[in-house]
């Protein structure tokens, strides 16, 4: 599977985000999802076969990290997508905070 098709799946994009700057074990990745370990393992296999993550074995554990170089131009796209989502989240949080202040200012003592 090519890299673009691999990252088209939302869970695989989320896995990439998790291992973007930090190496995580398969178990640490799996515990962040509401699907089986087997399902996460399949996503990791697709990412690994596409060359988007590196695998390091230590005993029985497997550790994954995003391979920024292999992602090529996709790396910039993913960074901008995640940045835009964070900007949107920050705007929503600020709006909710302002709304809370507006309601408390209008409340009678």
TrEMBL record:
InterPro entries: ArsR-like_HTH, HTH_ArsR_DNA-bd_dom, HTH_MetalResp_TranReg, WH-like_DNA-bd_sf, WH_DNA-bd_sf. The keyword Transcription regulation applies. Keywords: DNA-binding, Transcription, Transcription regulation. Residues 1-93 form the HTH arsR-type domain. It comes from the Bacteria. The keyword Hydrolase does not apply. SMART domains: HTH_ARSR (SM00418). This is Metalloregulator ArsR/SmtB family transcription factor.
